[in-house]
Structure formats: C-alpha cells, structure tokens
C-alpha cells in the first residue's frame, strides 16, 4: 500500500494489526498500531478515522483509561453526526455512553445510550439493543433509579428472547434443561 501512496490503505493495515494484537491481549501494541493509523489524520476517509477511534477507545478502556477513550471518541463526534443510523454510529454512541459512565457521569451517559438503543431498534440491530439496554440499566442503577434499570433489563431480555435461535417451545426447553 505504501508503494501506491494510498493513505486510506495505509490506515487500514495498522487497524487490522491492532485488532489482531487486541484479540491476543497485547493491548499496548494494539494502541500503538491504532495510533499509527490515527497519525495519518485527514488523509484517511472519515469511516476509517471513526473505526480507528472506536478501536483505540476500546483499548484504552481495557487498560482502565476511560478518560482517554472518551477523548478519542469525542475527536470524531462531528463525523458521527454526518452519518445516518448504522453500525458505526450505534457503536460510537454505545461506546461514548459506556465510557461516560465509567468516568463517573451516568446521567450524561444515558443520552448516548438511548440514542444507541433507538438507532439499533430502527435498524434491527438487536445485539446492539441488548448491549445498550444493559448499559442503560447499569447507568440507571448508578443514579438510584432501580425501576428504570429493571425496565431496561426486561426489555433487553425480551429483545434477546425474540431474536435468539434457540427454540422458545417450553417442552423443548424443559427437556434440554433436564439433559444438562
């Protein structure tokens, strides 16, 4: 990629390597790779910049640096506002909500978590609905609203039940449970 002078491709390579290093548990190496991609700046298409920010923020969160993770995510906020509902925008709102809660502001986190949930519901991305609803439940619990937390968990459970591939037949479930 470097031989064809393509910054867009130059950013994708370190991102891929970063994801591999992250899965291997080599978080500091993953951070370095994401930072290499991030250093290319405006030469990289905005979707790749957002993916880089999402990956880097996840790595920072894994080493208990949610403050840095949130700063990275806020750096691409303007680009997220340009995007319609989609996987990337949902993940961004979900991550901002989670990191905001982790730095001690669960009330502010709820705004992003609600946006993530609403977009996931509109687009049928049920895994993200479950993730955003459970994160909302934690935030509501943190602000002493257990009834709201319970509603979120009940809704997450209903979404999960409705979308999972395991049979909902009570007899089948009973037999499966009895067999271990």
Summed up:
The protein has helices at residues 7-23, 27-38, 46-62, 66-74, 77-81, 87-102, 106-123, 126-142, 146-163, 170-178.
Describe the structure.
- The protein has helices at residues 7-23, 27-38, 46-62, 66-74, 77-81, 87-102, 106-123, 126-142, 146-163, 170-178.
- It is mainly alpha-helical.
- It is globular, with a radius of gyration of 19 Å.
Task: Describe how the helices and strands are arranged.
Layout: H1 7-23, H2 27-38, H3 46-62, H4 66-74, H5 77-81, H6 87-102, H7 106-123, H8 126-142, H9 146-163, H10 170-178
Unreliable stretches: none
What is the helix tally? 10
Order of helices and strands: HHHHHHHHHH
- Helix content range: over 70%
Major β-sheet profile: none
Distance between the termini: 52 Å
Indicate the overall shape. Answer: globular
Q: Say what oligomer this is.
A: single chain
Number of strands: 0
């Amino acid at each position: 990629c470097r031989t064809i002078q393509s910054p867009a491709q130059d950013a994708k390579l370190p991102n891929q390597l970063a994801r591999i290093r992250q899965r291997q548990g080599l978080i500091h190496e993953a951070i370095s790779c994401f930072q290499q991609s991030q250093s290319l700046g405006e030469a990289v298409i905005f979707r790749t910049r957002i993916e880089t920010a999402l990956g880097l923020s996840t790595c920072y969160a894994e080493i208990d640096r949610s403050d840095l993770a949130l700063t990275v995510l806020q750096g691409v906020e303007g680009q997220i506002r340009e995007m319609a509902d989609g996987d990337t925008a949902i993940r961004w709102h979900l991550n901002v909500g989670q990191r905001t809660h982790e730095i001690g502001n669960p009330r502010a986190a709820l705004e992003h978590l609600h946006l993530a949930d609403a977009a996931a519901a509109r687009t049928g991305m049920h895994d993200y609905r479950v993730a955003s609803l459970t994160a909302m439940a934690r935030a509501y619990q943190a602000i002493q609203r257990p009834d709201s937390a319970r509603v979120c968990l009940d809704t997450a459970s209903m979404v999960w039940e409705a979308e999972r591939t395991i049979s909902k037949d009570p007899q089948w479930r009973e037999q499966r449970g009895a067999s271990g």
